[in-house]
Amino acid sequence: MPGSIQSIERAAAILELLAAAPVPLRVSEIGSAVQLPRATAHGILRTMLDVGWIEQDRVSGKYLIGEGRFAPGGRQVDPNELRARSMNWADPLAARSGEAVRVAVPEGPAARVIHYVFRPDHSTQKADVGALLPGHASALGKVLLAFRPSAGQALTDQALTPYTSRTLTTRSRLTSELAQVRRQGWAVEQGERQMDLAALAAPLTGLGGLVVGAVGIHGAVDRICDPNGVPRPRLLALVQECSRAIGRELHTPRTQA
Amino acid sequence: MKPRFVMAIDQGTTSTRAILFDHGGQLVAVSQLEHHQYFPKPGWLEHDPAEIWRNVEKVARRVLADVGARAEDIAAVGIANQRETIVLWDRRTGKPVRRAIVWQDTRTDALVDELQHAPGAGQITELTGLPLSSYFSAPKVRWMLEETPGLRERAERGEVLFGTMESWLIWNLTGGVHVTDVTNASRTLLMNIRSLKWDPQLLEFFGIPEAILPQIRSSLETYGTGRGVLEGVPIAAALGDQQAALFGQTCFAAGEGKCTYGTGSFLLLNTGTELVASTHGLLTTVAYQVAGQPAHYALEGSIAITGSLVQWFRDGLGLIGSAAEIETLARTVEDNGGCYIVPAFYGLFAPHWRPEARGIIAGLTSYITKGHLARAVLESTGWQTREVLDAMNADSSLRLRALKVDGGMTSDNLLMQFVADVLDVPVVRPMVAETVSLGAGYAAGLAVGYWSDLEGLRRNWHLAAQWQPAMDPARREAEYRNWTYAVELTLDWTSKTGAQ
Ligand SMILES: Nc1ncnc2c1ncn2[C@@H]1O[C@H](COP(=O)(O)OP(=O)(O)OP(=O)(O)O)[C@@H](O)[C@H]1O
Questions:
Q1: Closest by alpha carbon to B246, among B402, B439, B472?
Q2: Of A139, A220, B325, B479, whose CB is crowded by the most CB atoms within 10 A?
Q3: In 3D, which of A78, A108, A44 has the Cα closest to residue B374?
Q4: Are A81 and B412 inside 8 Å of each other by CB?
Q5: Domains in chain A, start-ordered, CATH in brackets?
Q6: Do A88 and B433 touch (CB under 8 A)?
Q7: Buried b or exposed e, range B87-113, using 16+ CB within 10 angstroms
Q8: Which of B80, B77, B172 is nearest to B444 (CA)?
Q9: CA nearest A154: which of A108, A220, A210, A123?
Q10: pLDDT at A73
Q11: How many CB pairs (< 8 A) connect A and B?
């Protein structure tokens, strides 16, 4: 049996204190209430601030409980913020893979496209920013369902619209596919939404390990997968590299953006 | 073995970066270091040139190490630099005589006021394409010569050298070649914008001895070869940062233009080999020059407050937690609700040039929410761009067919759509966001034949995103009229109220 972890206990004590406080509190007030030196209290407060559990008043510098943090489903990352943080990494993914890139955030059991980078081939293309992709029939959607299990609970067999003959239309097939996505850390879509289209996607992990979005590429089936239907390793590596780079970006505190 | 990369050195106001690009124009590796900002007095801003040079060496070494490359793998080095900042150094020891005076530094405001009344002030704009302002290099050089004991005498004896940042770096990289590129020279107030030579009348006006000046060279040519980490590598291009961005956006021909949307914003329009003198408050500047060919010129309109208005909304008003959240807030409403924000924080710049104006929030009613204010903040960037573009259209017969954009604000879809709507031209964003570095890399690569021609580079330019104008023309004109009324309300504020 591992012993209790001190910093978590301290954070919990601070959280209870702030939740009960009628007004925002100073570091010194918090420190003396939970019997911690100012520097220690400050360090814990910084981390709690970064994960969004608490907030700091910009003018007075006092601390208060984070709004909306403990609402069901947890705080979602601002989609425009996620786009701003993804842009510098999504562009090179498109350039290197030669395919179009999308970034999506969860919306119920579906994936809302919030960023789109054109395929670099001088052709005329249309960005579908704002589109809602079905969770069970898109690579981005499957990643989001896999890592946010509560979002998929409402998906009954009836809700699994068949787009093509390859769409996963039973709850049990979807469940085993999502387990596979969780194991391997990425998802593939092969003609499940449109016969000639394939896509690869990987999760975007924010502070505290919460998956806040997904990034992926999509294009013609024969470009994304080999003749045996296996995703091309080079493309997969690029998608995963991009998801890690954006993840690192998400871990730099919001206060600096 | 053929060299694999070109290296760009982007010496910016806050940091220095070395970036490697491959033959496809793709970014391969980046290394970056920030340098100290010295604020010795209110309004003053200095950098330590020795620190900046050390950072250049470090980032160059690191970026090579990142990809396991050596000097032989580098076809050429190109420099893009913060413009107008001045360095003076000792010819013999190579030591800076004091810290660099940075472009934003306003210590010469009083000196410039004085110079405005000196004989010859009336011809400055005609000769240089620039207004007489403390922003540019000459007043800063004059100040340093006057305020540093003994410096003027040493300068006259030829013991001291002057340069903008690229001169300082080329001198150090090559071990003593003292040159400047023509785009940087065009920001000094000392170069004749037509002859592209130091102008005796201007040197006389500012009291600057010719002995300190670097030789003016084209932007694309080998100035010398590197030493140390970059042993033997041709130092083959230099461009001011905004000109480098224009080049990186492949705006090589007349009528092509770009806008960089950051803290402030810079719209540059290539006017070809023909110089366009502005009668509408824009600057005339050199866009680039290939060795042995005539220079390309540009019209430039700078907007002081764009991204910084978003920062003010975040930090000053505390209505959002991060810059990008302004879009989220703005999307909570359909339109601006009749509200307009004119961010004349330090007066109005291009194309108005009304220093006595101060900012305003016009059209306030009880209906206005923070969502409307967020829209008005973003729209102010769109309208300010429109004003600069209108001035360009009035000065020149060239018509922009699409606006290429870069910079941090281009992640804002609502803003980019609004810019397309109010300019009534498509707005396009390239896939390589680092246009400043890319421009320096392109220029250096072209100069040494790593790339063969401009057309080849155009093929490297890929579209990452595009916004098509979609606003009803009647609505556009009505909104623009309202904005223009709001601008009128800001004028004369300080002269009427006595506020600062
Ligand atoms: N999504 C957004 N919407 C509106 N404004 C934004 C957004 N993201 C960033 N900004 C603004 O853009 C500016 C940052 O852009 P950028 O990093 O290009 O600026 P810069 O500091 O001028 O550039 P550099 O540091 O590269 O010289 C900030 O002023 C910020 O407020």
A1: B439
A2: A139
A3: A78
A4: no
A5: 6-65 (1.10.10.10), 79-250 (3.30.450.40)
A6: yes
A7: bbbebeeeebbbbbbbbebebbeebbe
A8: B77
A9: A108
A10: 42
A11: 72
- Cβ atoms within 10 Å, residue B308: 16
- By CB atoms closer than 10 A (0-12, 13-18, 19+), residue A4 is exposed
B329 close to ligand 1 (CB < 6 Angstrom): no
Q: Looking at the complex, report in whole angstroms how far the Cα of residue B447 sits from the nearest Cα belonging to chain A.
A: 25
- pLDDT-based confidence at residue A67 (cuts at 50, 70, 90): low
The DSSP letter of residue B354 is B
> CA B401, CA B425: separation in Å to the nearest integer?
6
Residue B36 pLDDT greater than 80, yes or no:
yes
**DSSP conformational letter for B401:** S
What are the structural domain ranges in chain B? 5-241
Q: In the prediction, which pLDDT does A257 show?
A: 41
Count CA within 13 A, CB hemisphere, residue B38: 12
Strands B100-101, B265-272: pairing kind: unpaired
**Could you tell me if B435 and B405 are in contact, meaning their C-beta atoms sit under 8 angstroms apart?**
no
Q: What's the average model confidence in pLDDT over B139-165?
A: 95
The answer to whether the beta carbons of residues B208 and B145 sit under 8 Å apart is: yes
pLDDT for the residue A255:
41
- Label residue B500 by pLDDT band (50, 70, 90): low
What's the CATH number of domain B5-241, 3.30.420.40, 1.10.10.10, 3.30.70.330, 3.30.930.10?
Answer: 3.30.420.40
Radius of gyration of chain A (CA): 21
Cα separation of B203 and B134, whole Å?
Answer: 16
Pocket test for ligand 1, best of B305, B341, B409, B435 (most atoms within 8 A of CB): B409
User: Which whole number is the average pLDDT over B21-37?
Assistant: 88
Give the torsion through C-alpha atoms of B76, B443, B431, B285, to 10 deg: 150
Residue B363 CA to ligand 1 center (angstroms) comes to 27
CA distance A96 to A84: 20
Give the one of A83, A91, A117 whose C-beta lies nearest to B324's C-beta.
Answer: A83
* Among the listed residues B409, B430, B427, B429, the one whose alpha carbon sits nearest the alpha carbon of residue B471: B427
